[in-house]
């Protein structure tokens, strides 16, 4: 996926969702260890909301790209 990052348009919806997903996974693992880190928990919720809005936009614009992306990133469909 790293080689794809360099060739990928960093402004594309797919890249943004990929980036948010990596940040979300990193924050989630941090919060498993630091249960009382409420500011990070708030940041996680903000990222989840941003990713959800981007996925909703992509699902509305191009359903095929949406399905492909959620299967690649192993994200549940809402």
UniProtKB/TrEMBL annotation:
Transmembrane segments: none annotated. One of its GO terms (biological process) is translation. Pfam families: Ribosomal_S15. SUPFAM superfamilies: S15/NS1 RNA-binding domain. GO terms for cellular component: chloroplast; ribonucleoprotein complex; ribosome. The keyword Ribosomal protein applies. Keywords: Chloroplast, Plastid, Ribonucleoprotein, Ribosomal protein. GO terms for molecular function: structural constituent of ribosome. It is found in: Plastid, Chloroplast. The keyword Ribosomal protein applies. Belongs to the universal ribosomal protein uS15 family. Part of the 30S ribosomal subunit. This is Small ribosomal subunit protein uS15c. It comes from Homolepis aturensis. The gene is rps15.
């Amino acid at each position: 996926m790293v080689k794809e990052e360099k060739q990928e348009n960093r402004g594309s919806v797919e890249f943004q969702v990929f980036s948010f997903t990596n940040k979300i996974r990193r924050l989630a693992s941090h919060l498993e260890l630091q249960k009382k880190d409420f500011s990070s928990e708030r940041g996680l919720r903000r990222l989840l909301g941003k990713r959800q809005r981007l996925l909703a936009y992509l699902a509305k614009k191009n359903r095929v790209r949406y399905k492909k992306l959620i299967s690649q990133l192993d994200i549940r469909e809402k």
